[in-house]
Structures are given as structure tokens and as C-alpha cells.
């Protein structure tokens, strides 16, 4: 009798404490997105729309999450300026907040909230300074790229920021974190396991940089994320493959396809569930080679950290996305 009462009571207590925590965490994340968006909208200009500010900010946030040599800015806005940029290279005071002396030494830091200080640790001052800097180059897409080049001096960084800008502008939102499993979780048979790092011999000794999801020929292959199609075509290793870059500095690689979605092309915007093509067994040879291995989707993920792009194991993400996708389809 005591056990019958005790177990339900324990479950009730657990639910009481855990469920509100989950809800509060979700609400907090949504509040951060809203606060961030409000700031972007407050400092956009006719030359610098909000999604350009948001793209630069998101890129900075992305690299801070994976780079140990860059301090992570614990605030709503992630953009960080160097002392030289903010106060001027010849300014003896790296912590200078006086707009007058900053301007005297050729610094770019500005007062964005009207408190008389140009503080590079203040979100409003940071966004106002970035908006002003970008606006100096003009309103066009090419002007924006020129501004990014002058600031970052790296084409790969520019490409990543432009991708983020495209997505934010198209969806009119910065809440683009949803992911799904790359194959339909119902109506088709499939299997997979963690094969990251396994040896591969064709084309020279190398390791397996992804997860193989085995399924029948023609099983639809779906985009796991929001993104922009960066690559489509033949690769001697991956056969017919599609490469998609998302707003988190991640490149998603879908290989060994039987064929592509005929309506898809490089530069297209995709979202979770967009059909990219179908499972096949293409690859390991000249264009059109097929049948050298059982049909499967090779799914890979690569992270760009502002310097290099490196592969990481997608298996834990696939397990999570599979559960989420199944739960969402109940």
C-alpha cells in the first residue's frame, strides 16, 4: 500500500520540478531571440537592414562556440571589436570610452545609447558602431561584401556571413534552429550506426568522415536543416552529392545519391524536410559509377571556425534528430 502511494508521489514531485524547468528554458531562449531581434531592428538603417547586422553577429557567435582562442562574449550580442579598431591603433588607453578621444585617435567606437560613452562591452554601442561601419560602404550586396572584406580579409568568412544573411532575410527570422532526420522516419526501412573514423581504402587510405544510413534505392533524402545549397554534382568519392551550408557555420554533406530533386539547384534555400534527392549507391569512380556498395546515404557534417573547416561526428546529432522527428510526427 505504501509503495503504491510512494511511486506516484515521487513521479509527481519530479514532474513538478523538471517540467517547469524545461518550459522556463524554452521561454528563456525565445526571450533571448526576441531581445536580440529588437536590438537588430533598433539599429538597422536604410543602408544596413537588420538581417546584415544579425548575420555578422551570428557568425561571431558561431566561432566563439568552437574556438578556444577567442573569448566567448556572455551577452545578447556576440560581436567583439579589437581595442585597435575601437579606440584607435595609437591610442594609449585601450579601455578608452570617450567618443572625443576615440575619434581623435582614429578609432571606430561610437556611443549607441546616448550615455556619453563609447563602450565596446555594451551591446547598443557595439551594434551602432557595426551599423555605422557597414553603412560607410553603401547599401548594395557588393558594398556589404566589400565592408566584410575590409573587416575580415577572408573569402570563406564572407561566404558564411552572406549565407546567414540570405537565410535570415528569406525567413524573416533568426529562429532557424530546427533539425530533422535526413530520411523519412515512417514508411521506409533504414538502419545506421556510428562509423565515424572507420578506415576507407578506395582512392587511398583515409577515415570515414560521416555516418552511413542504409536504406532502399529511391528513399527520399531530406535536408536536416535550414540552409543554402552550395554544391551539387559529381564527386569521385561521394558520387552524386549535395552540400548545404547553414546559419551555424555547418556544412551538411549528402552523398551517394541515386538522383537529385529536379527542382533543386545551387543557390536555392532549403529548410528541414526539403527533398534533396534519393538514396543510391553512386560513387567510387568516374561520373555515373554506381553499384559498388549497398545503397545508403552518407551524411557528413563540417564546422567552419573562421580559419579551417573540419569534420565532426554526426552520429549523436542523428540519434537526437531521429527521436525529435518521430516525436513530432506522432
From TrEMBL:
Q: Which UniProt keywords apply?
A: Hydrolase, Signal
Q: Does the keyword Signal apply?
A: yes
- Keyword Hydrolase included in the entry's annotation: yes
Give the matching InterPro entries: Cell_wall_metabolism_enzyme (IPR050570), Dup_hybrid_motif (IPR011055), Lysozyme-like_dom_sf (IPR023346), M23ase_b-sheet_dom (IPR016047)
Report a single Gene Ontology molecular function. Answer: metalloendopeptidase activity
Task: Report the leader peptide range.
Answer: 1-25
Q: Give the domain of life.
A: Bacteria
* Chain ranges of the M23ase beta-sheet core domain: 207-305
The protein's matches in CDD domains, at most eight in alphabetical order, are given as: M23_peptidase
Q: Which Gene3D superfamilies match?
A: Glucose Permease (Domain IIA)
Q: Please give the PANTHER family that the UniProt record associates with this protein.
A: L-ALA--D-GLU ENDOPEPTIDASE (PTHR21666:SF289), PEPTIDASE-RELATED (PTHR21666)
Protein name according to UniProt: Murein DD-endopeptidase MepM/ murein hydrolase activator NlpD
* Species of provenance: Ureibacillus thermosphaericus
Amino acid at each position: 500500500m505504501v509503495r503504491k502511494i510512494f511511486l506516484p508521489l515521487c513521479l509527481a514531485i519530479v514532474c513538478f520540478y523538471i517540467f517547469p524547468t524545461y518550459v522556463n528554458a524554452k521561454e528563456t531562449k525565445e526571450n533571448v531571440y526576441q531581445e536580440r531581434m529588437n536590438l537588430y531592428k533598433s539599429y538597422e538603417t536604410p543602408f544596413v537592414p537588420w538581417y546584415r547586422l544579425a548575420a555578422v553577429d551570428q557568425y561571431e557567435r558561431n566561432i566563439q562556440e568552437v574556438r578556444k582562442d577567442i573569448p566567448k562574449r556572455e551577452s545578447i550580442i556576440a560581436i567583439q571589436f579589437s581595442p585597435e579598431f575601437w579606440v584607435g591603433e595609437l591610442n594609449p588607453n585601450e579601455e578608452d570610452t570617450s567618443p572625443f578621444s576615440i575619434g581623435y585617435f582614429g578609432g571606430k567606437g561610437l556611443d549607441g545609447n546616448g550615455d556619453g560613452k563609447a563602450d565596446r562591452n555594451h551591446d547598443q554601442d557595439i551594434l551602432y558602431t557595426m551599423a555605422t561601419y557597414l553603412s560607410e560602404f553603401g547599401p548594395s550586396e557588393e558594398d556589404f561584401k566589400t565592408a566584410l572584406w575590409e573587416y575580415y580579409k577572408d573569402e570563406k568568412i564572407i561566404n558564411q556571413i552572406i549565407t546567414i544573411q540570405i537565410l535570415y532575410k528569406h525567413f524573416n527570422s533568426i529562429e532557424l534552429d530546427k533539425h530533422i532526420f535526413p530520411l523519412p522516419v515512417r514508411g521506409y526501412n533504414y538502419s545506421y550506426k556510428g562509423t565515424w573514423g572507420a578506415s576507407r581504402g578506395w582512392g587511398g587510405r583515409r577515415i570515414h568522415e560521416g555516418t552511413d544510413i542504409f536504406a532502399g534505392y529511391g528513399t527520399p533524402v531530406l535536408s536536416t536543416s535550414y540552409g543554402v545549397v552550395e554544391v551539387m554534382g559529381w564527386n569521385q568519392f561521394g558520387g552524386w552529392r549535395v552540400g548545404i551550408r547553414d546559419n551555424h557555420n555547418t556544412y551538411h554533406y549528402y552523398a551517394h545519391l541515386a538522383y537529385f530533386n529536379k527542382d533543386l539547384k545551387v543557390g536555392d534555400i532549403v529548410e528541414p524536410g526539403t527533398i534533396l534527392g534519393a538514396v543510391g549507391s553512386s560513387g567510387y569512380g568516374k561520373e555515373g559509377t554506381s553499384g559498388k556498395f549497398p545503397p545508403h546515404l552518407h551524411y557528413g557534417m563540417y564546422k567552419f571556425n573562421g580559419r579551417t573547416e573540419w569534420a565532426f561526428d554526426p552520429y549523436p546529432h542523428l540519434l537526437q534528430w531521429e527521436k525529435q522527428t518521430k516525436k513530432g510526427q506522432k
